[in-house]
Amino acid sequence: MVLKSLGRIALVAIGAIVTSFVVLSSSRAQAGSRYLPEYSASGDLILPKNWHEWIFLGSPLTPNALNNGKASFPEFHNVYVEPGSYAIYKKTGEFPDGTILFKELQLTLPMQNPDGSRTEPSGRGFFPGPFNGADVTVKDSKRYAATGGWGYYNFNHHEPKAPTAKLKAKSECAYCHIAGAQKDEVWTQFYPRLTK
Asked: CATH for 37-111+123-194?
């Protein structure tokens, strides 16, 4: 009887130890599961991998047809955030260093109406067409101190996307984010997932 009780206690203790180890390992794996920016030997940003599997934030649209034919970005801006960074942001309200925002550009289908829209079975509107390159933003408060902690990269405004990109000058990207983005140089005002 005593041996059975001791056996049960030992079994429960072993179970608790194994469970603790699994939970601890799982927590460490989750904390270490962020995809962080990768750079070439010359310091260029390497095109992030698997961004279509990241958290989709939204898709603002600024077509040429509504901007006198001269929109700065005449496409849908399909914006994704790296999932590990998003999880931290949702807990803390702050973008951690290493955050990557990926903006894949996608042209609209050719216009059929004077305002640039077209008519499809679902109704009149603007519809996604071919992909048109990408812009990527990376948070690193030390590396990009001169631009408020964010680095801005262009992987072509056409296809195919470039395999690497050089850091853009402050006057090319950062100035607009600094002047108009709602929070920490990110256009959170356009992405409800970031304002909940």
From this structure: 3.50.70.20
If DSSP states are collapsed to H, E and C, what string results for the chain? CHHHHHHHHHHHHHHHHHHHHHHHHHHHHHHCCCCCCCECCCCCEECCCCHHHCEEEECCECCHHHCCCCCCCCEEEEEEECHHHHHHHHHHCCCCCCCEEEEEEEEECCCCCCCCCEEECCEEECCEEEEEEEEEEEECCCCCHHHCCEEEEECCCCCCCCCEECECCCCCCHHHHHHHCCECCECHHHCHHHCC
- Tell me: the pLDDT tens digits for 96-105? 999 999 999 9
Rounded Cα–Cα distance for residues 194 and 17 (Å): 38
Q: Which is more confidently placed, 99 or 189?
A: 99
Q: Averaged over 137-156, what is the pLDDT?
A: 95
The per-residue pLDDT for 18 is 41
Lowest mean pLDDT among 25-34, 105-114, 122-131, 155-164: 25-34
Name the residue among 137, 133, 126, 144 with its Cα closest to residue 102. 137
* d(C-alpha 27, C-alpha 44), whole Å: 32
Return the residue matching tokens 């690497």.
164
- Pairing label, strands 45-46, 164-165: antiparallel
Q: What pLDDT is recorded for position 186?
A: 87
